[in-house]
Design brief:
The protein is an all-beta fold. The protein has no helices and seven strands. The protein has one domain. Helix content is 0%, strand content 31%. Strands 2-1-3-7-6 form a five-stranded antiparallel beta sheet, with no helix packed on it. A two-stranded antiparallel ribbon has the order 4-5.
């Protein structure tokens, strides 16, 4: 399976969930915060601000929220972000060792 399940929230707005098809690109813009979870962080590349694209699994400050590997930006909000997707089911990935 080459598709990836994605869910994210931007600036505290309602959660967006969808299937990202193989070889597709998702670009999101936020004023204050972005929280992202994907079904397979080993197959997703991410870019934040002016940095280069890197595999999500290699992002230095990944965290685990609701037993899912999660990116929270800016990373200063990690401690304040307790349950970014209340009631949401897992996206079928085990959290990466962080």
């Amino acid at each position: 399976m080459d598709d990836i399940y994605v869910r994210y929230t931007i600036d505290g707005k309602p959660v967006t969930s969808f299937i990202l098809r193989k070889d597709s690109l998702l670009m999101v813009k936020a004023r204050d915060s972005i929280v992202v979870q994907v079904s397979d962080p080993e197959r997703v590349y991410v870019k934040y601000r002016t940095a280069d694209f890197v595999p999500m699994k290699d992002v230095k400050d990944l965290t685990t929220k609701n037993e899912m590997t999660t990116i929270v930006r800016p990373n200063q909000l990690v401690e304040k972000t307790k349950d970014p997707f209340p009631g949401a089911r897992r996206l079928d990935n085990q959290p990466l060792k962080t």
